[in-house]
Queue: 3 jobs
Job 1
Amino acid sequence: MKYLTKTLLLFSFIFFQFTNAQVAQTEDTQLKRNEGSVDDQFEYVISKSYTYRGNGKVYKNVQYHWLTELKASVADTLKQKNKVIADTKAMIEKQSGEIAALKANLSNTQVELTNTNAEKDSMSLFGIQMSKGGYNILLWSIIAGLLALTLLFIVRFKGSNSATKEAKRKLEEVEIEFEEHRRVALEREQKVRRQLQDEINKNRDKK
């Protein structure tokens, strides 16, 4: 029983030492002075620096070259961050310019679309832009006016034609009457001439 207890204690001690060694190795692997993020490097310096207490406070002794390396690492990190910020700012400015250009193009497109719709909804008459409604009203008004003038012309033409026919008929009647009068007058003239000739003949016979 005692032997078993001693054996268990021995194995426990060995396992504990092995675990501590693994943890220490893992910490050394994870925390490196010149690698990893700035936070990891700070953690390495803090964990590896000498700690002592005095006047109720905790102090850390850090090697000078660690501080210079850490300073250089922080400077490089800040430089990279500044470069990223500058690149991001330049990208934002570029995108802002592109957005402004797109807005201008969109505005021009909207103006062109408005003008196109206005031209589509309007028609040109004698160089004057008119809406389709106004154009249709004007067109139908012109057509109605022309139809009214045509009807008036037809009515007047019919009236003039009737008057012309009546005038022709009266002229024909007058011509007929004139011809009849001329014929009667000619017959009278001939009769008078015959009578005159008869008188002349009688006078000759008496002599």
Job 2
Amino acid sequence: MMLDIATAYNKYGFLGNEFLTWIWYLIETDQDITTLASSKDPVIFEIGNSISLENNLGDKSKEKITIKGDQAGLEEGGTALKKGAWVTDMNLICRMGEEEYKFSIKGESFNITGLKTPTIDISSSEDEIEGLIVEKTFLIMKVIKVIDTLFLKFIEKRISDDWNASDLKGIRDWIQS
């Protein structure tokens, strides 16, 4: 039986926020993202200039914390995690080899917004427009593939029998440190 889309969204909507929190955990604990992303090039993530967290306080109220700014500290985010919040939206910088990508991703929908790919040389003639479009599409698909692969690895870990004993324990230890 197929789940109604709204039912599935409500039932599994938390997974995206858990995924983004897991990404933050990987970044902060210097995990090997390159291996997880099954990439030939080294993959390094950094938190960009914003991160949002949300804590469901029960009784249908929510606490939302947003940290913005290039020099903003993430201490407030750590405090929110200790209170039970999850990352709902984050800006990331992804470096793959010499290439740098910047984008924001929402946990509930996996919408990627504001994607900035490495600069491509656009000084070519109009005849080469098709090639530029193909190159830009390749760069976009490259970063989306990394996110998709990481999400697949997260889901594999999340549904494994040792999630609570290994990964979740590691995340909880990181939050408390």
Job 3
Amino acid sequence: MKFYTSIGPNPRVVTMFMAEKGIEIPQVEIDLRGGENRRAPYNVDVNPAGQTPALELDAGSVLTEITAICEYLEELFPETPLIGSTAEERANTRMWTRRVDIKICEPLTNGFRYAEGLPLFEPRMRCLPEAAAGLKAVAQDGVAWLDPLIAGRDFIAGDTLSLADLMLFAFLDFGVSVGQPIDPAFTHIHSWYGRMKSRPSANPN
């Protein structure tokens, strides 16, 4: 297999997922800033959506989208489970992963693309600068919603680390670096973030 990666929170989710499982896959670094992902051969042979990450399988087919890649790797390498060992655990992880993606990760990312990231993204996709502030506020609303729900537990989806934690951490950590800090009032999220930040998978170097 071959893993196409780059800067940004999306590839980081999968990179952390692999690190937590002890999976090593040869990597190909794609120059996102230079637009390598938006031109041939990458957007022809690897991912026609022009996004990272992507996982090329042994037979030559390619998987994209972080949840699909992680689901595939979970099936190939079931230890240590990060999505779940039972139908109920898997459903619960998928539920929380979807919640944090829609309520926090997506608006946070688009808030950046339409504001600080506008010079990079405007030539590549439809951008709505007038929506940036509102999207950032929506992401903060999502964090405010989640904060009391994780009181008294170490992880987002329950008692163990899961894909939901990795996804939320990668995007919140990205947000912190691009002017979307975590409100100190969200004490449970702050504590969780600190624990995630200290994990070896968050600091590979």
